[in-house]
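Bump. Still looking for DNA polymerase delta subunit 2 structure tokens.
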Amino acid sequence: MPVAMGDDKDAPTTYCRSTCKIENLSEKFKVTGENYGKQYSNIYFVRSQLMKDRIEAAARKKWGDDVLLKNLADIKSGEKCCIVGTLFKQMELQPSILKEISDEHHLQVQPPRSRFTSETDKLVLEGALQRISLTGNIDPQKCFTGSIVALLGEENVAGQFHIEDMAYSGLPEQDSLPEVDEEQYVLFLSGLGIGSKKEKTFEIQLLIDYVIGMLGGAEDHELCSKIVHVVVAGNSLAGETQDKESQTKAKYLTYKAEASTVQAMNDLDFFLSQLVPYVSVDVMSGEFDPTNHVMPQKPLHPCMFSSARRFNNSTFHTVSNPYECKINGVHLLGTSGQNINNMKMFGNISDSAELLSLTLNAQHLAPTAPDTLGCFPYYKTDPFIVNKCPHIYFCGNQDKFSSDIETGENNQRVLLLSVPAFVKTSSAVLVNLKTLDCQEVSFDLEWNDNEMREGTPEK
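Sorry for the wait, here they are.
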């Protein structure tokens, strides 16, 4: 691996970059035998069946082995018991295709919203055969459709289930964090937004120069030599590069027109080609990148990277979204942020780290899929179920950097990491694989000397 160079007062100092072993664990997110003609209803059934044992075990652990577990069809009014099922949130403001075409029927069009919650939202628990309305000790704005939960309470005279307490499956089992002698770092960045009117071209170049050791002083060079891997968590291209009208235009109108996506991809390839000779890079797909739109997203095709692909399968990899891997034994799991951003629209939790904690305890990456987040209509499995607890659980394309440490009853310790969109913040995040400490590194020209903000959470 090439070296990072630094200048000392007396003589130049040479730093050898550390190397790492990467194990891609994202095979389950690879869609085979694509068939979009299937119904989505079966994915909820499969999800509930696959998670039934673990949610019942969590209920017994929280409320005792003698807790009365019952099917919805068997509960009796006034009898305290525990029921397990899939949450469904009835939302008056939730967009629907009928509301989208209301224009054609001269009805009032629903105004654009960034959040679709209201005081009238209600929760329902669905079992295999029936459903029941929920009331009591539960906040609809902190719950999401598709979550598998256990509820303790009793049915009231109105036929509703009055909740005393609620339980998620909890953190899955986790392998121990590898013990290493030297400190190594992974750099997370997302939302480069290439092709945007607000594109941070100069700031991106500063970031590249920083990583390869061409920027900063001796301390920066020493730190950068310990960066063993870079994860680009989606939205490398901006939303403006998507020509939404191209599908409806006559062919002769677009024959000589070069799509803005092409130029943006060339720019992205140019930036990455400067990085991959020095450090290994994983490029995740994102909402605005040229790949399939629904989750899970396929990796960007290497043919789109004429320069960087020379290092394909060595230091340059395009990977799926979600993405799961191990770097020197440290388990990483994360998305480009669609799951978290979608949940923000249908609840009142705005903190990304809190939503990461919720999904990890629910043991599901994207509970709102397929209701409000598009996904492939799986029939026999649900790849978004989290079976193994990662050491680093991240989401990209967030408004700001945030982090937290989640601990479990079985000594699990997870870094919850919100990676800011570079086009908004001009910053990336460094994570220490030895300690899970993290820090934001900003390349904003309004800041001084690549200012770093520590993000070492305690819990």
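The chain has two domains: 3-30+173-243+255-454, 42-94+117-167.

Edit: fixed formatting.
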